[in-house]
Structures are given as structure tokens and as C-alpha cells.
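INFO batch 0412 | record 1 of 1 | parsing
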Amino acid sequence: MKHSHYVLVLTLLTLAAASFAQDSGEEIVMDKFGTVDLVVNETEVVQVLEMLAIQSRKNIIASNNVTGAVSANLYDVTFSEALEAVLRVNSFGYIEEGNFVYVYTLEELDTIEKARRKTESRIFELQYLSAGDADEFVKPLLSEEGKAAFRGDVEAGYQPSLKDGGGDSYAWSSKLVINDYPENLETIALLLKELDTPPTQVVVEATVVQTKVTEDNEFGVDFTALSNIQIGGIVNGPLAAAQNVITGAFKDRNIEGVSSSVGGTDSALFSGGLKAGIIKDHVGAFLKVLDQVVDTTVMARPRIT
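INFO prediction complete | emitting C-alpha cells
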């Protein structure tokens, strides 16, 4: 019998809501495909939510702070689109969990979101950046709940003595421990990756070598071609042409010649090598080739960084 009373009360409430909507010219209709037509004018938000709940068969629960009026004409929209449109104009929001829809103010939603968020801890081991400097860099990126601690800086002026031997001072590796929300930790990790890099250095390097010529090899071919002059007229033979040009023996004569020889280091005329030249008027050009064997020893290679 009690169950029958409950069914009767629910039926009366449904009929009352539908009757009120028709009398006031307000209407919310949902078809079999789930699309909603909504027409309201200066209607309380709570009442619109009640009408949506009846048509969609969803459980909508509103906070006590959800108050205000709304006017809207919506056609062929989904339940979620209609609900979001009605709530947005009054700065409300909702959380959907299963078949329940909880409606809150934005301030209440922000409080709930903060309560659900959890902080995490992460250790950052630094290679080049000091822990103290890293701590200063990450402080602006921490949230209100975020905290950072570091260890690894060595005290300036460390000097052990026979009494303590520096036993209380250890050179810890630079580490930074941060407790914050995951998204903040990711931002800090990217920043430290860019900052913890090797410093720019300049390398000055010099090489000191000792060189000693151990052997000279000179090569040449003996041939002579002269015009307008007898070969016998050249003092000391054809190979003296170059020497005569240098001393001025030919003066204004037009002489063209090419001369070379397999020289020796004991020759007074040629010191050796391949010599080729063209002699004409006062112009002379010569080519000499010398092959030398050199013994080189690296004495030192100092480097300053």
C-alpha cells in the first residue's frame, strides 16, 4: 500500500510540472532520438533543471547556491548541449558521474577540483647547474601547494684541518626535490633540461715542434736551345746561360733558352734541382724543383681551457 502512495505522488509531481509548463508557455520536449527542444522565459534555473530531469530521465542534483533566472529557445540539441547552455549564462557548471548530474557554482567546482588533485614528488639530479641556482629558477613555477628543497652546494672556503679533517663537510651531488602537481612538475622538468647544460668554454691549444732537414733530392733534365748565338760563344757551355743573364753578359741580345741539369750540392753554378727558364731581352724566368726529407718531432702540445 505504501508503494502505491509513492507512485501516486511521483505521478502527481510529473503531471504538475507538465501542467505548469503548458500554462506558463514554457516547454521542454525530448524525442525518442534524445534531442531536446527547450523554450523558457525568465524561468528559475532550478525549475528548468527539474524539467530537463523529467524529460531525460536523468538524476540532476543542484547545489543550494544554484539560483537565478534563464531565458532560452533551443531546438534539436542534445541533453548535454541544453544543460551546458542553461548553466553557462549564470556561471554554473556540472559534474556527471554515472547517471547522476551534480550542478555547482564555478567557485564550488574549483574547490572540488583542488580537493581531488594530488601532489607528487620528483627528484631532479643536476650535472652542471648548481642546486641553489636551480631552486631560484623553479620557484616562480610552483603552485601555492608546491614546495622545493635542494642539497649539494659546498660551503665556500672549505679547508680541512688536523682537528676535524673536514669530516663534517661532504660534497653531495646536486639534487633538487620538488613536490607539486603533475602538470607543474612537467613544466619544471622542461626548464631544468634547458638550463642544466655544460658551460661555454674556450680552448687555447699550441703545438711546439722541432724540424730538421735530413736529405735534399734535386732532379732535372739537361737540354739547351738558343737562337742568334753560337753555343760555343757561351762561356763555360750551355748551362752558363742563366749565369750570363744574371751577370749581364748578353746585354741587349734577344736570346730564348731553356736550361736545366741534374745538379749536385757541390755545383757552384747550380745548387741542384730542376731549373727551367725563358731568356729574352732583359726578362728572365726560371723554375726550380727541390725534394727535401724533413724529420719533425713534436716537443709539446699545451692546452688551456
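INFO post-check: The first helix runs from residue 2 to 23.
INFO record closed
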